[in-house]
Write a structure and sequence with these properties.
eight-stranded parallel β-sheet; alpha/beta; binds zinc ion; globular; 46% helix; 15% strand
Length: 308
């Protein structure tokens, strides 16, 4: 039997995967199209992307279900396909490993709106949507659920509860931070700082504290976040920074942090306490290959040192 994710991260750091959204665009998904529907309509394209990540050395692959809740799918007329979209996504991610051991993390992204009294969605609607998605991911056989790009603790809580109710074997709570205008610190769009988020994630029974995406959260800032998490929690930490800040070049969104540049931050992240290092928007299989190479070199040096 495969070692559970929560056990393996105690033994060694793992490499996550890179971006899905920007890779789907490269594969032909139009701006504003429903990337999650591709799990049913273009499974070969999704598999191709994830297989490149697995081949580059990802230990963990995140399902193509960021917008896979009923509320998000409804915008594209796919509200009736929640279970199929999410189960197919788990199967594709599993297939990407090609029989190698690896961990499939079922992705739950924000529901994409605001709850009452600020917005139009009731708490019950959001809860139902997360419950339905989490159940499909767990039924599909995901090794964990990653609740990603969260900015609000209320929404995060509903998604954690849904993951628990679905029986997820491991729950990862991942926040998106933005660097403040004066550059002195970072917090989520809803004003949550990393200490508060980590304490909240732990209190509510999730198993891994994480951060992904955000604005201005490059590898060095992500390292600050890991240190701030580590100061308040002993839970494993996962990190997935963007490949820099998006820039508009010839009407195309470009992320400009190269694999080399981002790679320099990998070992410092692990030394600061990160157990899983992947990357978010704009990253590619080349980024992940470089992360893998640098982490393996670092681990080899450590074990040579331990033998000497
Ligand atoms: Zn991102």
């Amino acid at each position: 039997m495969k070692t559970p994710l929560l056990d393996i991260v105690k033994a060694r750091p793992l490499i996550g995967d890179g971006a899905m959204g920007t890779q789907l665009m490269l594969a032909g998904l139009e701006q504003g199209g429903c990337g999650e529907a591709w799990n049913l309509t273009h499974p070969d394209k999704v598999l191709g992307i994830q297989r490149r990540y697995a081949d580059a050395g990802s230990d963990c692959i995140i399902t193509n279900t960021f917008g896979g809740s009923r509320i998000m799918l409804n915008r594209h007329g796919h509200a009736g396909d929640v279970a199929e979209v999410n189960k197919a996504a788990v199967a594709i991610a599993r297939e990407a490993f090609g029989g190698k051991p690896g961990y499939v993390l079922g992705d739950v992204g924000p529901f994409g709106g605001l709850m009452e009294p600020y917005g139009d969605f009731t708490e019950a609607q959001v809860r139902d949507a997360f419950n339905e998605q989490a159940r499909a991911l767990v039924d599909g056989g995901a090794d964990a659920i990653i609740i990603e790009t969260m900015t609000s603790l209320e929404e995060l809580q509903l998604a954690i509860e849904a993951s628990k109710a679905a029986g997820a074997p491991c729950i990862i709570g991942s926040m998106a931070y933005d660097v403040t205008l004066d550059g002195s610190t970072f917090r989520t769009m809803m004003g949550i700082d990393p200490e508060r988020a980590a304490a909240f994630i732990e209190e509510h029974g999730a198993h891994v504290v994480a951060l992904n995406c955000g604005t201005g959260m490059e590898m060095e800032r992500a390292r600050d976040a890991v240190l701030r998490y580590r100061a308040v929690t002993s839970l494993p930490i996962m990190v997935q920074p963007n490949a820099g800040v998006p820039k508009l070049v010839n009407m195309k969104v470009v992320y400009d942090e190269s694999p080399d540049h981002m790679g320099c931050g990998v070992v410092p992240l692990v030394e600061a306490g990160a157990s899983i290092v992947g990357a978010c928007c704009g990253s590619t299989p080349d980024h992940i290959r470089e992360f893998r190479r640098l982490l393996d070199a670092h681990l080899a040096t450590l074990s040579a040192g331990a033998r000497a």
